[in-house]
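Many introductory courses stop at the sequence. We go one step further.
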Amino acid sequence: MSLDLALTNARIVTCAGDDLTPSAPGFVGIRDGRIAALGPMKEFTGAVRVEDGGGRLLTPGLIDCHTHLVYAGDRAREFEQRLQGASYEDIARAGGGIMSTVRATRAASEDALFAPSAARARRLLAEGVTTLEIKSGYGLDVDNELKQLRVARRIGRELGIDVRATCLAAHALPPEFAHRADDYIDHVCRAILPAVAQADLADAVDAFCDHIGFAPAQTQRVFDAAQALGLPVKLHAEQLSDQGGAQLAARYRALSCDHLEYVSEDGVAALARAGTVAVLLPGAFYFLRETRLPPVDLLRRHRVPVAISTDSNPGSSPTTSLLLMLNLACTLFRLTPAEAFLGVTRHAARALGLQPTHGTLAVGKVADLALWDAESTAALCYEIGAPPPVAVFKRGVRLSS
């Protein structure tokens, strides 16, 4: 077998099972951007190019499966307001929150939007992220939703990483539809989603189902429109209240249901039956100083796969450190280090519908790899913002060192 590249003498964690104990030094062989061979060093027979891993830890590239990375402006003033006692809901109802970012994003040109958004993506890449999701939702009209999604696609092309773009037009009510939420949902279903699908700019559709977002019946209309266009769905649900969003997402076999601090056992059971991934977002929980923990024990009991993500956004989780989220998931949500690390690899891939090709190391999978100067994946969760990887490979091409 002719290999383009082999990474040798590495302690490999495939993330294919729940035991993340590193292997004895072994190798991963790559051909045409895919893993073509994997095993102990005694089975290695050579390659066109060989890189010695030096006994370091080799894992799948990390996956950030929930971000709002493309936006303009910041919300530092709102951070000050919250420290003075204002709640996230207070700020949103006063015209701040998501709408302040909508105004800045609408005003930005595509190039002006790309520059800071790509810089945020590069910071994720430096931490070993090789695949990420980017949502729209700060445009809230046809032209600006398309603009955000074009920038998301451009980030993937120019940075050489996989970007899954999600249309989140049902994120908030824009000012031109004030007090007319049903009319706006009509606009999303009849104008925005068809335009996005025609331009092939989205891989999924999302919505914010909560008492400061959209009602379940309105969300259902968005999901029906997405389904008619052949697009899978995801859902922001049960972040601030239990609206039955998890059950709704399960009925549509959503790829993921995200946040879930207020999800009920019935909601968790529905996710389990549907095979929907629960995406937990410890950055938002921390930054908003929430106190209602997501029901991790219920998710375990019902065997719901759990992913972890940055939720990178300007208002409730202004971070570009997925490594920090590993630590927060363990310290705040009491996930085990193994659960947390699988949440940014195998289960994160499933949350994006990429489990056949991404998230684990196996023959035939995409050769996305991260090489770490660490003893174990637990060490990456233990440090508060662990050191970045010494090398990152995307489809077998070295991206950083």
